[in-house]
Amino acid sequence: MAGVFYSAAQPFVLAELKRRKTQGYVNSRKINGCYITIKSQRTAPVMQKSKDLDTGQAIKDGAGMLIRGALDVTGILGGSDSWLGEAKESEAMSETNNQVGTKIVSQGELSSLASTDLNSRYATQTGRPTPSITKLDVEMSGDYGSLKKAILEIKCFDKQSFEEFEELYMIPGTELNISFGRVGQSGPANNGKFNGVVYDYSFKINSSLGYDCEIKAVAKGSLVTELNVMSKISDDAREFTSDFAGLNESTTVANIMDVFDYDVQDKMDDHEDLSSDEAYSFSAYPCAHIAGTDCPNAAPEPANDNMVGGNIIFASLGYIVNKLINVDLLKGNIEGGSVNTKEISYVCNNQVTVGKSYGKIFSANPMKVLIMGTPYKYHQEYGGTGGGAIGRFFGASKIWGKKFPKQNGNQVVMGGNKAKLGNILISRDTLRSITGASDAGGEGSKISISTFLNKIFEKIYNLTGGAYDLTVTNMTKQQASHYGYTGNTEGKMFVVDRNWVPGAGVEKIHLNASNATFDNSTRNVAITGKVPKDMAAAAFVGGTGTVSGKKQGSVEVVKGVRSETVPNLAKIRNQLITSREVIHDTGYNEESIGSAKSNLKAYVESVVSTRDKATFRKDMYPLELTATLEGIAGIQFGNACVTDLTPSRYSNPKGGLPKIVFTVSKTKHSISPNDWTTDVDTICRMEP
């Protein structure tokens, strides 16, 4: 069992490394040449015109024409222009262009495996060579391996070849399918691929009057993350009321924030005046719910309400990801023409979007983020005497979500030994604040999907005391299976908790470059060690500096003697009850919310073991390992690695401390016609 942040390499990677090791040094050096093949394709939308007649307007225009005709025929008082003013043309007929498909406008293929005989190699009008691939770099980097990009270097030897090549490969938005590997070697470890979209290019004329070209491409999933979350979506006749406080004007849905309002009005009958709670679940999508409740009298009115009655409307994280983003935005947007967004989707469900279940967790500000409870106590209580009956009797408390439908516990966050984070509720105010859509029907700001989600994740992290630290990452099918996900992982981006690192004892990649344990695949290994700032500070003031990371207890020096106060767990838990009382009693002000954040943080740290903390991505040992291998495809973010070059104090620690392990954070393949290397960067953590 393992997760994306700590996992075994794919079986074919481990098998290939073992095969190379058993070959011996001499045979392992006998590696065939390398190949690079590039296939390009560019498409254009197929548009179809359609006309739409506004019948009501047409009737009005027709009546007006009849009246004018009568006045003009009789000539009464100078005719229609004298009575009605200058005539205007009818606007009843409107015309739109709708995309009904795509067509291929160009295709190309260039390969280092192409024939090298003279007739083929010099088959140009100028008698100069055809374009040649000189180098390919394929890199996995970014947060948690989410950014995949490629850089191609190509030589064109004359102007004509360059212009033909430019048309096929160097236009932004062109799709590239690149395959690379070792000539004559079978298996996925010796043959890699990259599918992406051109986003940048450059060229310069060299001393031989040829053209040195560079093309940059990014994987489709990486490109989609930068799509404007407020992109316009296709007009499918959905209309919603955008101003209940005014004249009840109707607005056509234009972006996903409008879709949210439309769904609320369509599915929640009492959304205009929620004197009691109401909610709706979209059964077609995992963890997709919307809900609403009356705003507490003690709290400030919702800043971006427009739903009348001081109501607070919520959307679950699953609804935001699985419906608004995956369906309404990626499948319905009309601005993402540079990439087929319909091939990409995010995954947020009760299999992968999970975390540690905390019995007493809640949100420090339920008006922004609402954390519902367990199947036995689904709602959350804030206010006097802990939100109990006495407080409610005197009107001094608020029960959030008391009447939200539970659907057999499918909407709860704290269920069993895992928290179902896709069910966390985010308020409409929060979403519109992030997107800049302050009013219903407003266009909002230009903000990428990645930034939009990260800002939601940041809200969840801050309002739960750091209990849940969500991010988006790619996963192999093997990594996803450890979460219980068995579907296809191609084109999928998974919403996962960085604090949830399941499993232990996975098989590791050995990066050994010493003579005694040389693995016949590692060319070079580098290890650097540095003292973290907190350890250095502790040593500077007289401490041992042997422990890094946040302390649970407070440390002080009294007359030169170190004194450490062990946290009182009962006090920490009692402070949580006090926080929920004070938040409501003080009108949900920033001071009480800030105090609740601190108490939640103390609670989270008090119930997480030292070993669990060490397996979190952010609690690292002060070591960094980089290695250069003979080219091998398939190494992924989070793959566990070890090396025999690690100092013994880390590899065989004393006093029962856990061993360390390195996990991959970045890879880079560098391929030329005669060589292929794979550079691996790692971070260091305790072995789970």
Q: Output mean pLDDT.
A: 79
Spans where pLDDT lies below 50 across 5 or more residues:
544-560, 614-619
Counting DSSP H or I runs of 4 or more residues, the number of helices is 19
Distance between the termini: 11 Å
The amount of helix comes to 25-40%
The helix/strand class is alpha+beta
Q: What does the model show?
A:
The chain is built from 19 helices and 30 strands. The chain has 688 residues and is α+β, with helices and mostly antiparallel strands. It folds into three domains: 11-31 and 506-549 and 563-686, no CATH class; 35-43 and 102-224, Beta Barrel (Thrombin, subunit H); 278-322 and 339-435 and 448-497, no CATH class. Strands 1, 2, 3, 4, 5, 6, 7, 23, 24, 27, 28, 29 and 30 form a 13-stranded mixed sheet that branches. Strands 10-11-12-20-15 form a five-stranded antiparallel sheet. A three-stranded mixed sheet has the order 13-22-21. β3 and β4 (147-156) form a beta hairpin. The termini are close together.
